[in-house]
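Appendix C reproduces, verbatim, an entry submitted by the partner laboratory led by Prof. M.T., so that reviewers can inspect both the input and the predicted structure.
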Amino acid sequence: VQGHLPGALFIPRGYLELQIEQYVPDRNAPIVVYCAGGVRSLLAARSLKEMGYANVSSMIGGFTGWKNAGFKFTVPRVLTEEQRIRYSRHTLLKEVGEA
């Protein structure tokens, strides 16, 4: 199951250093980073600390650990582009919609 923690901000790992300042300008703000298993988030946390962010943590166990512990998470209901094309006539109906 894909998903994310409720209220989480998604910044892809490859863009983290480029985008973090526009989302979190306060370098003392608490930041918790996570990935699927907890390894890539350790690297991301280290990178943020090197950039001067002082209150950064990596979530042990990642998203998989969060789910397995039974905590709540959000699953976005979004159609892929292929599904959007395939079901385009159906989603026009008010009773069906896209979600």
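The chain is about 35% helix and 5% strand. Additional entries are available on request from the coordinating office.
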